[in-house]
Backbone:
């Protein structure tokens, strides 16, 4: 199957790291096509970054159309997820959404460990939107900037581990969800150190995308995710119109 992996930020090194994590998680026969928007923020650490990044995700979905079997949006704010689901019939998963689902299947309660404290509210909004507010027991910021994770997160390992240990104790959680695509490379080592399941949303979304494809399921074209209505788009968005 052809899996489109969208890094919603414009840092090419991060796109490459996320692609490596996705390929490591993918089953044989899954081709991972990794892309990033042609415009937008180098990292997504707040609402403004996220608004522009969502348009970048829409751009990449528009370019891909129905030539893919599934897509994954690899930023923990799941920017542009609903828009992407209107733009293609292929199933589209956000990494936060995928991680919340997986974590809730293997624990009664989980904690999220993320980057900047200011991004915690974005994860909290998603937990409410997806209905996971009763399963998540806390969202914790480390104040590590997203691009500081570009070495695979190795330089930040001790800080993330410390935050996760405190979260597990304070929240009485049974699992940790990593709150940034840039943390994917830390997942296995952290799980070993912490002794609880650690969920990387990139791997979770790749596996769930494969499952949906294997089940022959597509996004419903009826109702809320119907294709966009034809109309003119203007300015820089003109090529994105339907
Ligand atoms: C992210 C992420 O996954 N990519 C990015 O640019 N920002 N998430 C976050 N919590 O900071």
Residues:
């Amino acid at each position: 199957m052809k899996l489109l992996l969208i890094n919603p930020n414009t840092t090419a090194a991060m796109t490459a790291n996320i692609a490596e994590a996705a390929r490591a998680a993918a089953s044989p026969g899954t081709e991972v096509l990794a892309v990033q928007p042609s415009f937008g923020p180098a990292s997504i650490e707040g609402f403004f970054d996220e608004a522009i990044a969502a348009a970048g995700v829409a751009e990449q979905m528009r370019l891909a159309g129905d030539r893919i079997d599934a897509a994954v949006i690899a930023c923990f704010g799941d920017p542009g997820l609903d828009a992407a689901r209107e733009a293609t019939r292929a199933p589209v998963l956000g990494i936060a959404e995928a991680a919340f689902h997986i974590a809730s299947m293997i624990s009664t309660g989980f904690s999220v460990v993320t980057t900047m404290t200011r991004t915690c509210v974005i994860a909290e909004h998603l937990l409410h939107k997806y209905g996971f507010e009763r399963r998540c027991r806390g969202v914790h910021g480390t104040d590590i900037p997203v691009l500081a994770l570009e070495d695979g997160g190795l330089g930040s390992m001790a800080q993330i581990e410390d935050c996760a240990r405190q979260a597990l104790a304070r929240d009485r959680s049974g699992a940790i969800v990593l709150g940034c695509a840039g943390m994917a490379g830390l997942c296995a080592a952290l799980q070993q150190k912490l002794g609880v399941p650690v969920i990387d949303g990139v791997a979770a979304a790749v596996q769930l995308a494969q499952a949906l494809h294997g089940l022959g399921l597509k996004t419903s074209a009826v109702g809320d995710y119907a294709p966009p209505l034809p109309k003119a788009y203007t300015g820089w968005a003109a090529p994105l119109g339907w």
Observations:
- The first strand starts at residue 2 and ends at 6.
- The CA atoms of residues 62 and 170 lie 43 Å apart.
